[in-house]
Design brief:
Length: about 260
């Protein structure tokens, strides 16, 4: 029994000694200062320093006021590459541009645009025949003329020129279209201002190529001969052509060749 007690005492002493040693170790670990791990901070600092360092082999920084094209040209020049600033520019020097233009052609074109056909009819003006054909009814304001379709004599302020339906009708002289009207006797009728109080009237037309306000040069087609109205059914298709001076009828034949 004593031996067993002795053995237990020894064992208990050993255990207590071990526990005491373990407690000291735990205490030392708990009180020892912890070394900071600065590895991640060092990595971050190195990264920041690298970003802040000026670039050497990368594309050089560009001025705020410099566009990309100018920057590329500057880069090529700094590399020692010859840069042709005029290549593919698509422009001409002032001397080349002036040499390519004929001043006389420009002057002629400008004068044509600015002036257009002259509208200045006078007693000495000569006109062209507006249509080819024979005169069916002559101008007559001093005595009456017989009209077959109407079967009566009356004054005639115009001439009626025989022409086939569809024949072109040309401006007898320069003029500006004053009005386009539908008239029971003369059908589609165009009145032109000739200047100085003169007017020309074209009747029995169709398929007009002019509009009110147009300025028309002598010889320009203004329309085509239409089928005659019922007032000229016996006379057949024709051009009704009249002239006025200050609103009063005058003889067109006096101005035709």
């Amino acid at each position: 029994m004593m031996k067993n007690k002795t053995t237990k005492v020894i064992v208990n002493g050993v255990v207590l000694a071990a526990l005491a040693a373990l407690g000291v170790t735990v205490y030392q670990l708990g009180t020892a200062p912890v070394k900071e791990d600065n590895t991640q901070d060092e990595i971050r600092m190195e990264s920041v320093q690298q970003e802040a360092a000026p670039k050497t082999e990368e594309e050089p920084m560009v001025d705020v006021g410099t566009n990309h094209v100018e920057a590329n040209l500057d880069n090529e020049a700094s590399d020692g590459t010859d840069v042709d600033l005029t290549a593919n520019a698509g422009t001409q020097t002032e001397e080349e541009a002036n040499a390519a233009v004929d001043p006389e052609e420009v002057a002629d074109a400008s004068a044509s645009v600015l002036t257009g056909p002259e509208i200045n009819f006078s007693e000495d003006t000569s006109m062209e025949w507006p249509v080819n054909g024979n005169i069916l009814l002559d101008y007559s304001m001093d005595q009456t003329t017989y009209f077959p379709t109407l079967d009566q004599y009356k004054l005639n302020p115009a001439i009626a020129v025989q022409a086939v339906e569809g024949a072109p009708v040309m401006a007898a002289v320069n003029g500006t279209v004053f009005s386009i009207e539908e008239n029971a006797q003369t059908g589609t009728t165009v009145t032109m201002e000739l200047g100085n109080g003169y007017q020309a009237v074209y009747g029995q037309l169709k398929d007009l190529s002019v509009a009110e306000g147009d300025t028309v040069k002598e010889g320009t087609i203004i329309g085509y001969i239409s089928a005659p109205t019922k007032y000229y059914s016996l006379e057949g298709s024709n051009l009704y052509f009249a002239m006025k001076k200050d609103g009063e009828p005058i003889d067109p034949i006096a101005y035709l060749p």
